Amino acid sequence: MKVVVASNNPGKLRELQAILAPALELVPQSALGIAEADEPHDTFVENALAKARHASQAAKLPALADDSGLCVDELAGEPGVHSAYYAGREGSRDERDARNNAKLLASLGERRSAYYCCLMVFLRRAEDPRPLIAEGIWRGEIARSPRGSEGFGYDPLFLLPALGRTAAELSPAEKNRISHRALAARGLLELLHAADRA
User: Domains plus CATH for the chain?
Assistant: First the structure.
């Protein structure tokens, strides 16, 4: 099944391709000339639905979107849905990531527990009244300083105590087995298979 992916984030697109192919034929919205949608909402699921509806309507294809972020307990769940622009919208993606990580480290005290949340949605068409929705939660804590060169976003700070490594110290294959996005994507595939059998 050909599906438009409502994202222009290269890291997210690589992960989704690795996790969901060959079950789904993913087409990035940028390949179809579709601009990113606004994300004006205060919840992951509303933002994911807005992105999926926008891409599906423009592409006239089923659409997949996720909205995800890092939620830090000591910061009452922040940066949360604002993770990508926690320290502002200026600059390239890499520059924003560096500022976001610096701001996060400066904001934290001793409590360092955190989790990545991914809400993934699938729409059969833009006006689909029954979107499929899956959630993935990946628990960890915030490291004292960045470590690793893989991944993107907050991965250099997201420490997995059981492994003794940050998400940025995992190989892409390791991350794509255990991450919040992997959990949500596998859940979504199960929902798709169940819907096909119904």
Answer: 2-197 (3.90.950.10)
